[in-house]
Amino acid sequence: QEHTKRWAAEIARFDGFVFVTPEYNHGLPAALKNAIDFIFAEWGNKAAGFVSYGSAYGVRAVEQLRLVLSEVSVATVRPQVMMSLFEDFRDFSEFTPHERHEAVLVTVFDQLESWAAALKPLRQ
Length: 124
Fold this sequence. Notes:
globular; three-stranded parallel β-sheet; single chain
């Protein structure tokens, strides 16, 4: 399909990704899983970091996402930004992140850059 070709071309352009995901029913959103599954080779030997949110900080969504990404040869960095619907969202809708997340996000970016660079020879 043409939309799949466009999606594949877009993913192929990047060396790494930051996935921002909510947690639904103790897992990752179906649309995100579908977006990953529609292509394969374009993900290979790249790196990923995570920002998650939910009533339990979105940690279970990221646990599942790490497994899925390992199958398409994406290396994931260990630190992740975890946000609570109760602490980082006013009335469960207005995003009001706490400043404590900034340091973790910087670490995620730093490690993501390092891993993406280290994997570059494998992508060539």
